[in-house]
Design a protein that fits this description.
It contains 16 helices and 14 strands. It is globular, with a radius of gyration of 25 Å. It folds into 3 domains: about 150 residues, Nitrogenase molybdenum iron protein domain (Rossmann fold, 3-Layer(aba) Sandwich); about 190 residues, 3-Layer(aba) Sandwich (Rossmann fold), CATH 3.40.50.1980; about 30 residues, no CATH class. With about 425 residues, the chain is of the alpha/beta class. A 6-stranded parallel sheet has the order 1-11-10-9-12-13, sandwiched between helices. The mean pLDDT is about 95. The protein starts with a strand and ends with a helix.
């Protein structure tokens, strides 16, 4: 990789290319997704099964669309003790973190004769999407955990999982074990935009939900974007990204490995290193070349690094953090000697990883915070998936007769200014003896 010095015109141009890559899609892709959504909304199960058979499982029958108890039992017998140990630890730690996010309903009676409050209530039903990836051979178990656990903690009554089946109509057993561990009620064998449509609109077999969360390909992302408003969604996620800030004490092998951990996700993923050391920059570039050699997803990672990766030398850590705040990256790593001296300067990031023993994959799988994070600069105003995504807040208002009379004139004054005389009259009629 080329090494840039910031500030420079070349560095600025590279930054612009990375920041502007965003969520790109064609009009044809948008039209295709719209057509799929409309078809499933109109024809329900028939359309859902048609797409599922065409693209995933040619012989899947409607009666097998929902994963059976026998399939769950077989899945539990199919996974290793090592997997069970790892998933149990992940569930415990993710649940512990998310329980701290629970909000309580409250009532305030500070004003005489007035009671105000807020009820915090869970949605009735939520849908979690988990990509199948490579015909189910690389199941995204972590997506099940990160979507299902906060929904369960929020108190959602019914949680569905949508995941594309393998060619023979089965679901990877690791996904099923994870689903059972986090309390998911129903698992449907469907993927892509037609799965999102089924969750958003409901079919004869699939229960309509109130919120849809989880990552996916371009078709899934576009489908979520379109149905947003009909249902709640977590976010419109763009390609994955990481920004590593390193000082002269940083291990170049660590920096390179962490960059690759995101670059292997997608050909338009972004991995950037900002360092105060020319030596660290040069050694990280060499490490990238070395570590890519034996990577199974080498072609993807290499293309990502070539087009949307960068190594830049900056004057100091404060400059690096200022740049990071401007980019508002999904994952920000502080590979510096004293990360806690600098974390307070970070204003915009999906998640911050502190120190040399906290690589980004810790957050992906097991630390506890949610790994569904804002991308493409949206960390300026957006937050990670949380319990809040599965709740709604309802206001409570009560006035006594005296409190009403004390404020009536002010209400009518404001209503009259807005020209809403019916509003004013709703107050006026109550002032009559």
């Amino acid at each position: 990789m080329n090494i840039f010095v910031y500030p420079s015109p070349e560095a600025e141009e590279k930054f612009k290319k990375i920041v502007d890559r965003g969520l790109g899609y064609s009009e044809d892709e948008l039209e295709s997704v719209n057509a799929i959504l409309s078809d499933v909304k109109k024809r329900g199960d028939a359309a859902l099964m048609e797409y599922t058979r065409r693209f995933d499982a040619p012989t899947l029958l409607l009666e097998n669309l929902i994963v059976s108890e026998e399939e769950f039992a077989l899945a539990e017998r199919s996974v290793s003790p090592e997997f069970m140990k790892a998933v149990d630890r992940a569930v415990d730690q993710i649940a512990s973190f998310h329980k701290k996010q629970l909000r309580k309903s409250w009532i305030d009676t500070d004003r005489e004769g007035v009671m105000l409050g807020q009820m915090v209530l869970p949605v009735d039903a939520a849908g979690v999407y988990a990509p199948g990836a490579k015909g189910g051979k690389t199941p995204l178990v972590s997506s099940v955990l990160m979507g299902g656990i906060p929904a369960k903690i929020a108190g959602v009554k019914h949680i569905s999982l949508m995941t594309p089946p393998t060619e023979d109509g089965s679901v990877n057993p690791h996904l099923l074990v994870a689903a059972r561990k986090v309390g998911i009620d129903t698992v449907y064998k469907a993927g892509s935009a037609w799965a999102i449509a089924a969750l958003a609109f409901g079919t004869e077999t699939v229960k309509k939900v109130d919120v849809i969360v989880g990552p996916g390909n371009m078709y899934v992302t576009l489908a979520k974007k379109i149905v947003s408003g009909t249902v709640g969604i977590d976010m419109i996620a763009g390609p994955s990204e990481i920004l590593v800030i390193a000082d002269d004490k940083a291990n170049p092998a660590h920096a390179a490995a962490d960059m690759i951990s995101q670059a292997e996700h997608d050909r338009v993923a972004s991995a950037v290193l900002l360092t105060t050391s020319r030596t660290v920059a040069e050694q990280t570039a060499a490490e990238l070349k070395k570590q890519l050699e034996n990577l199974p997803r080498k072609d993807i990672a290499q293309e990502s690094l070539e087009h949307f990766g960068a190594i830049m030398v900056v004057s100091d850590i404060d400059t690096a953090i200022e740049l990071a705040n401007g980019i508002a990256t999904e994952h920000l790593e502080l590979l510096v000697e004293n990360p806690f001296d600098h974390v307070g300067k970070v204003k915009n990031a999906g998640a911050v990883f502190l120190g040399s023993h906290t690589p980004e994959p810790i957050g992906d799988y097991i630390a506890g915070p949610n790994h569904v994070l804002p991308t493409a600069g949206t960390a300026r105003f957006s937050s990670a998936l949380s319990v809040d995504h599965f709740t709604k807040k309802t206001s409570l208002i009560y006035y006594s007769r005296q409190a009403f009379e004390d404020e009536a004139q002010d209400i009518m004054t404001l209503a009259d200014i807005e020209g809403l005389h019916g509003h004013a009259n709703a107050i006026k009629v109550r002032l009559k003896p």
